[in-house]
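Ticket #4471: structure export looks truncated?
Reporter: QA, pipeline team
Priority: medium

Steps to reproduce: submit the single chain below to the structure queue and open the exported record.
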Amino acid sequence: MKHSNLKPRKSRQPHPEAEFKCIVRVTDGNKKKYSTVITAKEHLRFQESYNTILKAHMDALKKREKIKSKPSKKAIDGQQGL
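Actual output as written to the record:
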């Protein structure tokens, strides 16, 4: 069996001033796509603005119609026994 001469790499330490970023991608439902990069400092402000936009457009949602399910056979047999 051959012995490997590979040595484990030394891990690099992250830069102390490195700032974490997050990319947000959205679409308008058609052909337009938008994206933006948010830093950790801007996260809360972006989230508040995004929530405001979502709440403003919530009134356009339609209520779903309830679908009546057929009563099960056991429920029908239980009512006939009364």
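Status: closed, not a bug. The export was complete when the record was re-opened. Leaving a note from the reviewer for reference: The helical segments are 43-56, 73-80.
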